[in-house]
Amino acid sequence: MLEQLLIFTRGGLILWTCKELGNALKGSPIDTLIRSCLLEERSGAASYHYDAPGASYTLKWTFRNELGIVFVAVYQRILHLLYVEDLLAKVKREFSLVYDPKRTAYPDFDETFRQLKMEALARAEDLKRSNLNPVAGNAKKQVQGHNKLGFEGGNKKSGSVAKSGGGADGDDANGWKMENGHAKGSFVAKDANLSSVVNGRENGSPNVGAFDVHKLQKLRAKGGGKKTDTVAKASKAEPNKKITKKNRVWDDAATKETKLDFTDNVGEDGDRNIDFVAADQGESMMDKEEIVSSESEEEEEQEDAGKNRKPHVKSKGWFSSMFQSIAGKANLEKSDLEPALIALKDRLMTKNVAEEIAEKLCESVAASLEGKKLASFTRVSSTVQAAMEEALLRILTPRRSIDILRDVHAAKEQRKPYVVVFVGVNGVGKSTNLAKVAYWLLQHNVSVMMAACDTFRSGAVEQLRTHARRLQIPIFEKGYEKDPAVVAKEAIQEASRNGSDVVLVDTAGRMQDNEPLMRALSKLIYLNNPDLVLFVGEALVGNDAVDQLSKFNQKLSDLSASANPRLIDGILLTKFDTIDDKVGAALSMVYISGAPVMFVGCGQSYTDLKKLNVKSIVKTLLK
Amino acid sequence: MEELEQWKEQLSHFYNLVMDRLREVPPDQLYAAAAIAIFTTLLLLSLRLFKRAKSNTVVLTGLSGSGKTVIFYQLRDGSTHQGTVTSMEPNEDTFILHSEKTGKGKIKPVHVVDVPGHSRLRPKLDEYLPQAAGIVFVVDALDFLPNCRSASEYLYDLLTKGSVVKKKIPVLILCNKTDKVTAHTKEFIRRQIEKEIDKLRASRSAISAADIANEFSLGIPGEPFSFTQCSNKVTTADASGLTGEISQLEEFIREHVKQ
């Protein structure tokens, strides 16, 4: 049952809402949809799920780009209404005929909408009826069975629906109820849902023949797929964990008898080796101005490559596109956008953007351009390029302020240390970049303390100790084989005692699939509630970036004991000097997590830390 | 060298031809033609100067959810129609303020631009600032304290932009949603923002970021910041978008958009 259908302009004014479906929406699903989906360039997705306390909705939308209108349908999450897309398309068409930029109220559209809705429901019902010919039905939406019993059952339910209108509506309402049931694949489930969802409607008894328990289970399982994955992995990981808390063994290496813990006797050795102190190695690159070279590269070479691949399409397309560019063709169709988008997607992928991300971005750009009028003297490819550039700029622009110094000052006023936790997979450069960040902060007169919570990797504590000695900052360490969460907690207490402004917490590298380690990380974050959770990712990573970030976020939210789990707040991109212009990893990471890139590591010495220059990245990506 | 000589000869030949033709023309016509040419040039130049001095654009900006689109429609139509959602694109229109529609005489229409407040759409503001005669910074007076920092940061960025400082564009801090009982007063909001900007000055001058370029610094270093230290005029006002209480805003518009 549709909760609400809204029509609004891209500028934000609501043009029409359905007055019949008068239920007020709980929370603010439309605003959230705009902020987290449409403005994040995910408008190519099929639907959006919104969860708020007390309600969970699914939202579907469609655009009318040349008029600048958006159509959004909201319905309860647990229902699978099939007619929504169809209805949205019809509403779009009808409303575009009525639309006038000067008008702001459309009361006469109510009647049109009611008719359209009935037509859509009837059509969906017909589709169901015609599809139901053989008996055995699959548990998918396209049920291939004709269930006469179901249809009779629908008819028998006379007057069980309290919809406005008399007997004329009754038939439609029954058809509508039956269609909902088919969408779920089981009639009992339909009634159960409706009784819980629909307000004040009495339901008839479920009287149709055998309902399929298997279908029900399959559908339930389909919906909860994500959860079962983690459950399966947890059960797989469980046997790995030994009963006694012995040494953590990564693979089947023979367990050593003696405990290899060198925490005690390092004092003198350390002093002897560290001769000089990295007092001033110059200005960190964070503070240097970036000179953006303004070269306007032509895309000719890429165009040629495209031409070679599809000669037949191009030869005809070039002439017609020239003609169209001068004449200014009426409206952009999806077929016109296809070749340009495919070329753009390939270009993005050669720049090391994850394939999934490039796909979604292209869909989103297509959705925003479809139906728009081509300005004269522009080619389709240049329009697509401009739209993509704007989209990339939008994604890479940080959503919130990345001014860390300001946050540090704010925390200083509250007399609390500002805690930053560095997380990431193995070998991305957490400890190195932690030292770089410490150096930068020191240059701005902020007192820093390091916390060595990597208690697993051999040499990790010594590494940090060396950095601390060179930078002359305190370090809190408890050696190896200790619980990182507890070490972090004590480090923060120590910092507030000796008045350090910032605590940088180093953690061990861990793969995103490793359940017990992710649990340990989640515990560390939950226990200490840091101000900034920084995900360290290397720029060399390809498609794995998507997997890493999404799994990290997912595990942090699933395994957290609190109601409001802390997710990744920022990204630190490392090894940026090793990639020439294949800067796509930055885009993949930002797109999939929504977190801004706060630092970029571009070398291995203390000064090699800089901020992300959005414009130059976008230029490099589209070159 | 020979070619150069040839060119010179041709040019002198042309020159003689032209002078002969000119001498044939009666002098009056010549003077008239010259006068018209000079007059047209002067006219175009003066029009350009005039247009630059008299801009009638007012820019509405502020954080997302502060009520800019509601105020835009109140100014234009006098009602908020059926409500608004988060804007994805700027709303701009040139119109006579709704309350002035019943007035007498010729009232010049005002060009109002409502720029979305969502942080991802901030760059759109830079397109409209150069032509602005006045900036209205809308602040949510009801939900002020949680957003105080982000509002102050946005305002600070605005006040340090080159185009705003050089042209001394007047800024009005409009405290919206004052129809609610728990809304803060404009004096309170002004003081809070001044305090936040003071802190921001200290931290921002510490970094010279490549992206966030604050071209100018605000106020006098060493003294606590106050809006009187800005080179452009900053004032505060109350308003309520939903009920239509926008008289102070309209005064500001009338004052700064010359008729």
Structure description:
- The complex is a heterodimer of chains A (623) and B (259).
- Chain A is α/β, with parallel strands linked by helices and 623 residues long.
- Chain A is 47% helix and 12% strand.
- In chain A, helix 12 packs across helix 14.
- Chain A is globular.
- About 20% of the residues of chain A have low confidence.
- About 2% of the residues of chain B have low confidence.
- Chain B has eight helices and six strands; from the N terminus they run H-H-E-H-E-E-H-E-H-H-E-H-E-H.
- Chain B has a six-stranded mixed beta sheet, with helices on both faces.
- The longest helix of chain B has 27 residues.
- In chain B, strand 5, helix 7 and strand 6 form a beta-alpha-beta unit.
- In chain B, helix 5 packs across helix 7.
- Chain B starts with a helix and ends with a helix.
- Chain B is of the alpha/beta class.
- Chains A and B meet through strand 2, helix 1, helix 14 and helix 15 of A and helix 3, helix 5 and helix 7 of B.
- Chain A: GO terms for molecular function: GTP binding.
- Chain A: This is SRP54-type proteins GTP-binding domain-containing protein.
- Chain A: Pfam families: SRP-alpha_N, SRP54, SRP54_N.
